[in-house]
Amino acid sequence: MTLSKKFSTLLAGAVIALGLAACNGGADNQAASGGQPAAAGADTVAAIKEKGVIRIGVFGDKPPFGYVDANGKNQGFDVEIAKEMAKDLLGSPDKIEFVLTEAANRVEYVRSGKVDVLLANFTQTPERAEAVDFASPYMKVALGVVSPKGKPITDVAQLKDQTLLVNKGTTADAFFTKNHPEVKLLKFDQNTETFDALKDGRGVALAHDNALLWAWAKENPDYEVAIGNIGPAESIAPAVKKGDKALLDWVNGEIAAMKKDGRLKAAYEKTLLPVYGDKVKPEELLAE
């Protein structure tokens, strides 16, 4: 099977699986509602061990980072990290309850306790840090803009009074809302909806994390990431409930160990290298 067909199969499987299993939720920018900070001194790590399962929030429709395959199995870079966490904490990579999340409800799921740890390609921002606690980053990212090759968007100035497609609650949504009010934003909850809208011509371009866009454009050769880096360089990191020091310290230790012993790079080689090939070097995406 060619990589293009494989990527298309992954997306198709994600759409079917999400239709059955995706969870509904509120918006990232509603972080002030719902949920309370973790009680001081509460040992969440001990509670997870006693329960025998860790609930980890991941995407279901964002290959190669988090997606549900045609067999209903969670796959992707974030999923590999989650399995390592479960193995170290509970002795088995299978002792995970994967909770499917969308971009717009990630903060809500952490604050409400619906997940213990969020590993859904979550970019650290000052606004989000007021609502959740971020652990050490495991990935670096910036924004990019993908557009048709026949009508490439090579400069943000070309987007004036045009429709740009974004996902609700993402850094792309926040960046263009704050810095470019002259751009019309059409927002969607799910990645599959957003990319379908680009193919349908409902927008002149689509803004998202550049790492995702490079992967998507490679499998959709009629499109190109003509703007590969826009806005500030940012980090992707796990998140836990605000004030949950025990769990935060444990997650920090896990990320540090995975960087040191090579498991983070191994996860990259298993899930991202087949997509990026030589176009992207691991050190360009993996956090130190």
UniProtKB/TrEMBL annotation:
Entry keyword Transport: yes
InterPro entries according to UniProt: Bact_solute-bind_prot3, SBP_3_CS, Solute-binding_3/MltF_N
UniProtKB keywords: Signal, Transport
GO BP annotation list: amino acid transport
PROSITE patterns attached to this UniProt entry: PROKAR_LIPOPROTEIN, SBP_BACTERIAL_3
Listed GO CC annotations: extracellular region; outer membrane-bounded periplasmic space
Domain Solute-binding protein family 3/N-terminal: 53-275
Signal peptide: 1-27
Keyword Metal-binding: no
One Pfam family linked to the record: SBP_bac_3
Family assignment from sequence similarity: Belongs to the bacterial solute-binding protein 3 family.
Name by which UniProt lists this protein: ABC transporter substrate-binding protein
Organism: Neisseria elongata subsp. glycolytica ATCC 29315
